[in-house]
Write a structure and sequence with these properties.
five-stranded parallel β-sheet, 212 residues, Cobalamin-binding protein, 2 domains, 5 strands
């Protein structure tokens, strides 16, 4: 019975996120009704719901703006409604997101929101050039670096980042339009993982954590 209720909550949360219904989202994620413990909310409800919304975007049934708002709403809920969850967030100061030399920040914003929804605490570097990225990663002792790009020249410069991080134990995860157009581009620039959706970043980090 409890499992059925959890599955129903995933479906309800997907609908509420797509409709941007904050009251319904808050009601669904209420950990005080005895059906689910607050520590289970991220893995059993939030991540499956965000994964499904990401798949629907790939299928063309939801807009990128809905994906973006879903991530933002989840980030808001975790920050304000269920602050106890923040004490269980993972990998603080080990994970960073950055836009490499492009000016379009939407992709990085969505990925960061999804990571927070999955229980991570990414440091957001914003827009940076190669040397700035290398300096920040070293200074913050980052273990997982997620790089978002929009244009091919920026994507190709990731090779300079991966070369600069060789031997330092940093895993580089990349995503953005150039990688969707050319699935082999990730290998060319030396990335450890390529993401085609925002939720792919969560999967990639979890796989790399298991391997480390």
């Amino acid at each position: 019975m409890a499992l059925d209720k959890i599955d129903n909550r995933v479906v309800d949360l997907i609908t509420a996120l797509i409709n941007m219904d904050r009251l319904k989202i808050r009601e669904i994620l209420n950990p005080e009704d005895g059906v689910i413990f607050k520590e289970q909310i991220i893995d059993t409800i939030i991540v499956p719901a965000l994964d499904e919304i990401g798949k629907r975007w790939e299928e063309g049934t939801v807009a990128i703006s809905q994906v973006y708002m879903a991530g933002i709403l989840i980030e808001e809920m975790i920050s304000s409604m269920v602050p106890d969850i923040k004490s269980n967030l993972k990998n603080e100061k080990k994970l960073a997101t950055v836009v490499l030399e492009d000016y379009h920040m939407l992709g990085e914003r969505i990925v960061s929101a999804y990571l927070i929804g999955a229980g991570y605490t990414p440091i957001r570097y914003g827009r940076r050039n190669v040397q700035e990225v290398l300096s920040l990663v070293s200074h913050d002792n980052i273990k997982y670096l997620i790089i978002s790009t929009l244009m091919l020249p920026s994507a190709l410069r990731i090779k300079e980042v991966t070369t600069g991080l060789e031997g330092k134990g940093v895993k580089v995860i990349v995503g953005g339009a150039p990688f969707r157009f050319d699935p082999e581009l990730g290998k060319e620039v030396g990335a450890d993982r390529v993401c085609f959706t925002a939720s792919d970043a969560v999967t990639a980090i979890r796989e790399l954590e298991i391997m480390s």
